[in-house]
Amino acid sequence: MNVSTIKISLVILLIAGCSPDHKKNNIDLNELSEIKTIDESALEKEWQAIIELREKNLQSVVENQAFDNEKTLLEDADNLQNRTEEQLLKVQVREKLLAEEALLESIKSRAADLVTQ
Q1: End-to-end CA distance of the chain, in Å?
Q2: How many degrees, rounded to 5, is the angle at CA 60 between CA 58 and CA 62?
Q3: DSSP of 8-45
Q4: φ, ψ for residue 111 (rounded to 5)?
Q5: Structure confidence by residue, pLDDT tens digits, 50-102
Q6: Angstrom distance (rounded) from CA 89 to CA 44
Q7: What is the pTM of this model?
Q8: How far apart are CA 76 and CA 84, in angstroms?
């Protein structure tokens, strides 16, 4: 073997020794791909949890609003019933007063008839 062949062989061996290990890079890329998949899965789970929480909050807001609306309607119904009962009592008092006034007029008329006889 001559010297130039040995030099070329040494240079090739040095280049081969200094070059990156392709298998190691493949493992790193595979690991990175797995990590990326795991991160995407975790991120998807977090987003799903956030969406579920927001849906629950929205449902709670809607239920609270429905409760408030129902409460307002019940209060309005109670107020209307109270006003109606008050008006009914006023009408009954007026009817009683009118009946008493009519009775009084009838008594006055009879008394006047008795006096004139």
Answers
A1: 171
A2: 70
A3: HHHHHHHHHHHS--HHHHHHHHHHHHHHHHHHHHHHHH
A4: -65, -40
A5: 999 999 999 999 999 999 999 999 999 999 999 999 999 999 999 999 999 99
A6: 67
A7: 0.48
A8: 12
The tokens describing 86, both together, are 């008050």
Tell me the per-residue pLDDT of 2-41, one tens digit each, with 9 for 90 and over: 666 776 776 676 666 555 555 555 566 677 677 777 788 8
CB neighbour class for 28 (10 Å; exposed up to 12, middle 13-18, buried from 19): exposed
- Token readout for 6 is 């040995």
Q: Which two tokens stand for residue 91?
A: 């009408």
Sequence letter at residue 23: K
Indicate the length of the chain as a whole number.
117
Question: Which residue matches tokens 């070329």?
Answer: 8
